[in-house]
Amino acid sequence: MGNEKTRVGIIGASGYGGIQLVRLLLEHPQVELTYLAGHSSAGKPYSDLYPHLTHRVNLTIEPIDLEAIADRCDAVFLGLPNGLACDMAPVLLAKGCKVLDLSADYRFRNLNTYTEWYKKDRQDQATNNQAVYGLPELYRDAIKDAQLIGCPGCYPTASLLALSPLLKQGFIVPETAIIDAKSGTSGGGREAKVNMLLAEAEGSLGAYGVAKHRHTPEIEQIASDLAGTELQVQFTPHLIPMVRGILATVYATLRDPGLVRDDLITIYSAFYRASPFVKILPHGVYPQTKWAWGTNLCYIGIEVDPRTGRVIVLSAIDNLVKGQAGQAVQCLNLMMGWEESLGLPQLAFYP
Amino acid sequence: MGNEKTRVGIIGASGYGGIQLVRLLLEHPQVELTYLAGHSSAGKPYSDLYPHLTHRVNLTIEPIDLEAIADRCDAVFLGLPNGLACDMAPVLLAKGCKVLDLSADYRFRNLNTYTEWYKKDRQDQATNNQAVYGLPELYRDAIKDAQLIGCPGCYPTASLLALSPLLKQGFIVPETAIIDAKSGTSGGGREAKVNMLLAEAEGSLGAYGVAKHRHTPEIEQIASDLAGTELQVQFTPHLIPMVRGILATVYATLRDPGLVRDDLITIYSAFYRASPFVKILPHGVYPQTKWAWGTNLCYIGIEVDPRTGRVIVLSAIDNLVKGQAGQAVQCLNLMMGWEESLGLPQLAFYP
Amino acid sequence: MGNEKTRVGIIGASGYGGIQLVRLLLEHPQVELTYLAGHSSAGKPYSDLYPHLTHRVNLTIEPIDLEAIADRCDAVFLGLPNGLACDMAPVLLAKGCKVLDLSADYRFRNLNTYTEWYKKDRQDQATNNQAVYGLPELYRDAIKDAQLIGCPGCYPTASLLALSPLLKQGFIVPETAIIDAKSGTSGGGREAKVNMLLAEAEGSLGAYGVAKHRHTPEIEQIASDLAGTELQVQFTPHLIPMVRGILATVYATLRDPGLVRDDLITIYSAFYRASPFVKILPHGVYPQTKWAWGTNLCYIGIEVDPRTGRVIVLSAIDNLVKGQAGQAVQCLNLMMGWEESLGLPQLAFYP
Amino acid sequence: MGNEKTRVGIIGASGYGGIQLVRLLLEHPQVELTYLAGHSSAGKPYSDLYPHLTHRVNLTIEPIDLEAIADRCDAVFLGLPNGLACDMAPVLLAKGCKVLDLSADYRFRNLNTYTEWYKKDRQDQATNNQAVYGLPELYRDAIKDAQLIGCPGCYPTASLLALSPLLKQGFIVPETAIIDAKSGTSGGGREAKVNMLLAEAEGSLGAYGVAKHRHTPEIEQIASDLAGTELQVQFTPHLIPMVRGILATVYATLRDPGLVRDDLITIYSAFYRASPFVKILPHGVYPQTKWAWGTNLCYIGIEVDPRTGRVIVLSAIDNLVKGQAGQAVQCLNLMMGWEESLGLPQLAFYP
Question: Which GO molecular function annotation, any one, does this entry have (chains A, B, C, D) (predicted)?
């Protein structure tokens, strides 16, 4: 271990986002994990929460002491419930830390939108102005220069990677975009909730948050940027009886009815040429979420229905890696000037 | 057992459709199971295929001898792969049997559509003209008078129950209808296929048959009937890591932007007032497929998104009961003049 | 509904035991459900807890008012956490109710054993003396005459049905009995616990309570009765990533090395001749828990290993039906002089 | 890629063992994958079988041409059905390849035992004499010098790691050893079988091969070696509704009733001190199979029941990694003189 490694801390390390970060950072060649902070679990050895890590992690969860954290860390990941990061990030930034927030706090350019959907007033407009939306496939250059990243939600990541080439290049009628998304239950976090019990969720399937899920305005903000016009999307999340994985099935009407599937495969491949984690599938192949399990990859399959004039795009990610912690590490890599894919898994175990 | 019971046979009793029929008919108060027929399993005790039924079924699977079947049965269910029933039904009908076919053979008014999608030429137009589409909620009266029923596919059942009130009464722009459907793997039948292994399908999720699934023209035929105009729908099936259940998430643009959710709940409730198996959920409640597990019920949840002007309808069934065998028994009840719900489960076990 | 029906109440109707009772009693031909009582959910319509029952249950959960309950019920099921029934049963019995307790409170003849394992002192020795252990296959006659039933735990039911013929007739060396039991997670109840989340429990398997699970003394009490001597068993429970079902794999050394599998199949079949819910499987067939899903059945498979001189017995039940609520209804049937199997499901849905 | 890398081939790369090897060897720093051979899939790009690997594997499956394989490989893994490797290994060894066989062909010192359980006559006694049983924790030194490895079965790996310290040091009465093992369904391989369909295996649990599974003599051979006396074990495998993972629950009677749990934890820790992949858990912690998912680790929990005088050992592995392909790579590392853990995953993703 060297003094040349970047010292990294995690505030909110006890949840599923936290454990992914811990695991990824333990295997990252340029990083040293120096601070795990938490509130309710402060004082406990981390391996009390995750006994399978006993042999690799001998850190204890410490209190959230921002001064101490800033002293001991060059970069800090925040894995807290919505509404807490906005009180911590300004302090950490002022002390020179790079900050990567996994909550919704720094995802919105317009804080009124945040307040409307997340029910919290915000005073940190100046800090918010610094924040870059942490989707490297769209904002790679801005991320490289940023000190503060608002890491995207899991659903927006899958949805925007599916939609971006279409919106950016004006191939679809924007208001026809419908995102039918399906997620494993780990997206609900490591909190005890009756509807997330195996006995409840196993062997069943349902929608939730129909027409009112909070990832909707987040998708719309970025989609509007890409389209160059304000637009609204239909977004419906579903809970699937599995642990990990998101599949977004995206529907939209093509402007040009002459476009065929192979055109779009070419267009997507070009759009993501510089993006090591996005894999465009050959025609007739649709992604399985399991292909992305434990990796930072996004697999995209594309179909055109000549009968209806619609494009159907299927995008699959691991909701906790590319949809959360892995993407945050991808951002850190860019911020630090490292190779974008450094330390990030690219090969799932199968089956 | 009395001579007053209706004698019923099943051709193709070895698969998942067959075992559902066996189970439902064993508990049906007006029916006596008199003939189980199969090809590859002929000669075997039925309990060799399903050992848990040893204590209740002591029938042996017999060869498919249509003469013998017609002699010993008043009504016959056909649970065979597509393309076989059309060679058997004419014979059974000629001998006076009522016939309920669970395959696609008698679902299409226009046999050219059948031949286009199922790749088999048909000579039995006259017989086909007799067939009634076995969705009681739409064709109750015709079913009562029918001798031949083409029982609907599992996806069309869930999709059409969700769409019918909207189409029948002209509430939506027909060409905007998108059906994003999700099914448990039992829909694939009891055949050994690699992609249906637990090791492959568990913990994963994917679409299949995008823009080309054979249930599309079946949905379109009935939807066009309801709308009074030819229309096309977008239908995308997905495989979910669970045994049973279908959820159809249906999207469509409302013609009248002033319609609100409660209006539609009222409209649906009225539309299905005489249908004992369709349950319209109160506002804000969306169905879980598990609620319908093992029953002949269809649960429907309704949402309107005032931002986008769309209605989103969620419909959940057990793919093997309301989506297959239970609905066929429901049709038999109507054909025999019995109470529509006779012998059909209405209470799921939970969880 | 008739005045001749038996009026039944459930105290503690909100959990998984409660919902099974509600479902079974709704379909029971001789019973009318007249009182659902609960503490934290008092005042709520029952269908708020289980929306899929909206169309069949319009009862509201009422407070636990023992006077009112006794006035309105002939028989009362108690589905409460351990340690509460012992304060209620005496009151209900005094007012003439039959009482069936699903907790551990009335399972132990010796209250010291109860207090040692359940950490609660007991004053109701007289009431406890009246209680009969509600395993009909062993105590059918006593149950018929009882007013108070201590319904068995789910593990003891599966374990004792596997062991009883061996112990009763002295075929095994008692201290060699090992029960390796596996249960779905619904056994943990409808309480929000992190380790029972789908995200935690799915795709994994582990033991718990090794050498100290509270079902051990319960099994030992009955096993000792059968053997006519005090004995100890090894009992290890495991949590399986599925909703329902228990499999007990029981090992024991045979006293007589000449006994073969078919002897034991004969012996078991004779032992359970009068027991409609126990199904002894033919040789070479081992039970799947799914065969019993939603039924009151217990499937038993038997193997002898001539190399080691051991018998291996496999017994499968639905932990919430034969392992809990169904068995309680079976007891009620006996107490009321009805047919033992009245209203109880005997046919699983498969798959 | 350098000429200094060891050239490795896989015969039988299409199954689950094959895909694990491909994945592990792709990430191994000292290895170059030069030959993928198969019979039925020869001529196909490997990514036709596993589309998620398209971006990383552009090898095509070639015919099983032993000459060509020996020319292009320094070491060869055989991942074939039982009974085929014994015809290939002699040829490959004669040409100087190191051979690691994942089938049962080279696991038995006594070929009569092999023939009795696997029903194939063998002529290759001389080759068999060279074979070393590939369990590094027991045979590390012999593996270092070997040219031919008979890699252990998945159940024997979990069972023997749990039993070895007890047998080696005479702590238990050998004939009391009972192994109740539970496996995910991927152990059945990537072959289409009805009982392995998700629709059949999900939500259910059962034993199979009771008293006659072919891993029994394999466990007994090694256990007898350790104990220094011929012994027999009771081994019962169960199929669990999950993809990966084995848990072995091992019971045995202690010779010395004074031994307590902490003694055994100390003994196990010492026994496995030099074994980087075996993790002994602190008292009161029992392993979850998911902890080992995708890693080469074996987690062991230990309990003593002072009431019965038995030790209960719980051992959890990933059946396809430590139970198969990972352990084979661990053997290759030893044969090549590399660090034992080189290129092998040690950190599971969780949850």
Answer: N-acetyl-gamma-glutamyl-phosphate reductase activity
Structure tokens at B270: 């009225």
For the segment D192-210, the average pLDDT, to the nearest whole number, is 97
Please tell me which residue of chain B has the smallest CA distance to D351: B203
Among B73, B97, B151, B154, the active-site one is B154
Active-site residue, C86 included: no
Q: Is D205 on the interface with C (CB under 8 A)?
A: yes
Nearest CA of chain D to the CA of A79: how many Å? 16
Contact D37, D73 (CB under 8 A): no
B154-319, what's its fold? Dihydrodipicolinate Reductase; domain 2 (3.30.360)
- CA dihedral of residues A9, A15, A21, A27 (deg, nearest 10): 110
Residue of C193, B293, C320 lying closest to A204 (CA atoms): B293
Over its C-alpha atoms, chain A yields an Rg (Å, rounded) of: 20
C283-to-C265, C280, D180 alpha-carbon distances in Å: 8, 9, 20
Q: Cβ–Cβ of D205/C240 closer than 8 Å?
A: yes
State what percent of residues in chain A have pLDDT above 90: 97
Cα of A166 vs its chain's centroid, Å: 20
Chains in contact with D, counting 3 or more C-beta pairs less than 8 Å apart as contact:
A, B, C
pLDDT tier at D3 (50, 70, 90 boundaries)?
A: low
Give contacts of B206 with chain D, Cβ < 8 Å. none
Q: Report which DSSP code applies to C177.
A: -
Determine the Cα–Cα distance for residues B285 and D150; give it in Å rounded to an integer. Answer: 58
Name the residue among C238, C344, C216, C219 with its Cα closest to residue C292: C344
Q: Are A259 and A317 in contact (CB under 8 A)?
A: no
3-state secondary structure of C204: coil
Cβ A199–C192 below 8 Å, yes or no? no
Catalytic residues of A: 154
Residue A12, sorted as left (phi over 0), alpha (psi -120 to 50) or beta, turns out to be left
Report CA torsion sign: D28, D30, D34, D40.
negative
List chain B domain ranges: 6-130, 154-319
∠D300-D301-D303 over CA atoms, to 5°?
145
Residue with tokens 């070639």: D62
What pLDDT is recorded for position D257? 86
d(CA C131, CA B239): 50
- The answer, yes or no, to whether ipTM is higher than 0.95 is yes
Superfamily of domain C6-130: NAD(P)-binding Rossmann-like Domain (3.40.50.720)
Q: What is the pLDDT of residues B1-60, one digit of tens each?
A: 345 899 999 999 999 999 999 999 999 999 999 999 999 999 999 999 999 999 999 999
Tell me the one-letter amino acid at D84: L
Looking at domain D154-321, which of 3.40.50.170, 3.30.360.10, 1.20.140.10, 3.40.50.12780 is its CATH number? 3.30.360.10
According to the model, what pLDDT value does residue A257 have?
86
User: Choosing among D20, D194, D198, which should be mutated to test the B contact, i.e. which has the most B CBs within 10 A?
Assistant: D198
What pLDDT does residue C1 have?
Answer: 39
Q: How many C-beta atoms lie closer than 10 Å to residue B44's C-beta? A: 14
Distance between CA B272 and CA B279 in Å, rounded?
A: 8
Q: Which of C281, C347, C351 has the CB atom closest to B51's CB atom?
A: C281
- Residue A175's closest chain B neighbor by CA? B308
Instruction: Kindly state the tokens that stand for A105.
Output: 């706090």
Subunits next to A (3 or more Cβ pairs <8 Å) are B, C, D
User: Measuring CA to CA, how many Å separate A149 from each of A99, A152, C180, D230?
Assistant: 6, 9, 51, 65
In degrees, to the nearest 5, what angle opens at C-alpha D15 toward C-alphas D11 and D18? 50
* DSSP H or E stretch at residue B236: strand B234-239
Is any Cβ of chain D less than 8 angstroms from the Cβ of B184? Answer: yes
Nearest CA among B202, C24, B303 for reference residue A293 = B202
Q: Measured in whole angstroms, how far is the alpha carbon of residue C79 from the centre of its chain?
A: 12
